[in-house]
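Standup, Tuesday
Yesterday: got the pipeline producing structure tokens again.
Today: sanity-check two examples.
Blockers: none.

Example 1:
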Amino acid sequence: MTQLLPYINQDFGSPVWRIEIDETSTILFVELRNSENKKVAFGAVNLLNGHTNFDDVTTPERWLTGIETAYDGLLLVHNYLSETGPIHKGLIAIDGTTGKTLWSNYTLAFDHLTTNGPVVYNAQIQPRKLFLADIKTGQTLRPYEPVIDTPAYNNISSPLRLPVDLLKELPLPAKPYANTVHYMEHNTYRIVSLHTFFQEQIKQHLYIIDKQGAIVYQDLLNSNIQKMQPEAFVVHKNSLIYLKEKSALIVLHL
């Protein structure tokens, strides 16, 4: 029996609010939100070699900002029009290797990502007109053409939520709280995340089980939480990705 070990274990020190994976460069970006300091920062990790490219890049707007998308090795972030509303404002492009800002444009807004790059529009012009943009420069290239600018696809798989009765044969060392688990099969592994309740504490656990039925990896994801958490992990190609105690990014090869 071979035990699995993480090849990425990066604690960012602040809660990870969002994860975005650039399919073209295999860089994983994180959005970090520290509500106490009213600070948003961004990090980038190379999923191929496990190297952390940066872990604390900020923009001039330190709170009303967030991840928009990622493409061709760049992270695209936005500002918010106001603290009380969801409307996005402007675009800033950050190099995924160096963390340096390549360009910014506060009149453009992001619409969606295609296989040819991001589709944007000028927020000051109505009705909205969509254009394909060069993410390296921020320049609009041509009008958006749905036939050739097809939606970008990601290789991310999420677990199913299942009743534990369907998985009676699994060697789970703890009884699931509420009798449900998050479950996925990938390659020869079966991956399970579950909650437990003991002494007034809810905890969230992760188990990886091989084809012989042995637990080859386990971790405590969240301790002493107040309510059941949503799905605890995703699989990107052959990488299992999850967060530990909200601020640590853990990645294993499956």
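Example 2:
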Amino acid sequence: MKKIRVSVVEDSNTLRRGLATLLNHAPDLRCHSTCASAEEALQRLPGDAPDIVLMDIRLPGLSGIECVARLAGQMPKARILMLTAYEDSEDIFQSLAAGAHGYLVKSTAPEQLLDAIREVAAGGSPISGSVARKIVDFFRARPAAPGGVGPLAPREREVLKLLAEGCPYQQIAAAMSLPAGTVRTCIQQTYEKLHAHGRAEVAL
């Protein structure tokens, strides 16, 4: 089985080593490389060619957001997942605008983090529940666009609600007493109806 190669950009030595250990204990994941700064990441990661990059925001020197913006142009096939202690609305939107594919807080449970990495590798856009709520609240405060959202079935609306809250696929399946395959099909249909390409756009 080919393992998903994950590179970690994190300035905390303790957390960087902990993430590497967590990744290497997962049967389908591997810590491909680690970097302690954005500058090191910009120098090394294009050559390392990881599948996924876990990116901190507050780094010495260049910020993680600036690093994402630069890496996105150099590594179009890599998917970048923000992993940060900060839930500031400006950080969230700047990260997504720079090219991040998801946004998780560091308090995310280890198994949920591993699931989020698998999700982003499969083309999804995992977002922590607290972050998704900030996004939803931001747009609720704005006037609704004409026409609104296209018709969704009750099950699709329930899946949409759980997605916006940041629930992983397995948790959605358990909450709705549905097979995981049915949930994935329902999510794909919801994406198509909303003309969205991932969890981040669905939340918006």
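Quick observation on example 2: Residues 180-194 form the longest helix (15 residues). The longest strand covers residues 29-35.
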